[in-house]
Structure to design on (206 residues):
């Protein structure tokens, strides 16, 4: 149902639907974030959408949703925050976020992006803890971009089997988190190696 609704919205208003749906998901649209990003990748592969535009829309959508929740925790009254968290049934996810923050500190942000709803509850808790926005945005936006890249790329291979893939993700959430963490480690190692190689070549040329 959610996937069909997403396709209808995209057909009606185009790529900006990807951005809007990720934002409006906060108020109850029955469309998982994963489905939106996978769909963006699948439509890019099918050349229905321009790939850079689709990727930009989903990345901005996730980042804006995380920023909204951070701002809600940081700048609104406790009464409004409690009302919103109760309305969105955030309670159990806030508890998970508190656990991740207590155990991993700042690393709770990149970890949480791999878990539905927790990725939005964690920014809310970080805001309540008065984390500086500059620090939050650097970590959260980097993690969101990486998460988006993973699912956007998967969308190129999943194609029209997205609903089945979403069910698989929900059943094996821990496995997909582990795979995501492995991919993150590989990307970080490659980045560090390239950085060292680049600077090593620069020093030798001098």
């Amino acid at each position: 149902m959610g996937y069909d609704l997403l396709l209808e919205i995209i057909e009606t208003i185009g790529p900006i639907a990807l951005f809007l749906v990720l934002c409006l998901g906060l108020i109850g649209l029955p469309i998982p974030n994963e489905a939106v990003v996978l769909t963006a990748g699948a439509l890019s592969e099918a050349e229905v959408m321009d790939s850079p535009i689709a990727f930009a829309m989903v990345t901005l959508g996730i980042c804006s949703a995380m920023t909204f929740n951070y701002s809600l925790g940081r700048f609104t009254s406790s009464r409004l925050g409690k009302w919103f968290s109760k309305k969105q049934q955030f309670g159990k996810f806030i508890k998970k976020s508190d656990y991740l923050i207590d155990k991993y500190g700042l690393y709770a942000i990149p970890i949480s992006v791999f878990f539905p709803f927790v990725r939005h509850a964690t920014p809310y808790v970080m805001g309540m803890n008065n984390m500086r926005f500059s620090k939050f945005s650097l970590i959260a936006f980097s993690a969101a971009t990486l998460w988006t890249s993973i699912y956007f790329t998967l969308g190129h291979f999943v194609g029209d089997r997205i609903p089945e893939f979403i069910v698989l993700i929900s059943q094996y959430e821990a496995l997909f988190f582990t795979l995501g963490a492995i991919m993150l480690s590989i990307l970080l190692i490659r980045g560090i190696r390239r950085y060292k190689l680049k600077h090593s070549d620069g020093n030798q040329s001098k």
In short: The chain has two domains: 2-162, 172-206. The radius of gyration is 18 Å. The chain is about 80% helix and 0% strand. Residues 2-162 form one domain.
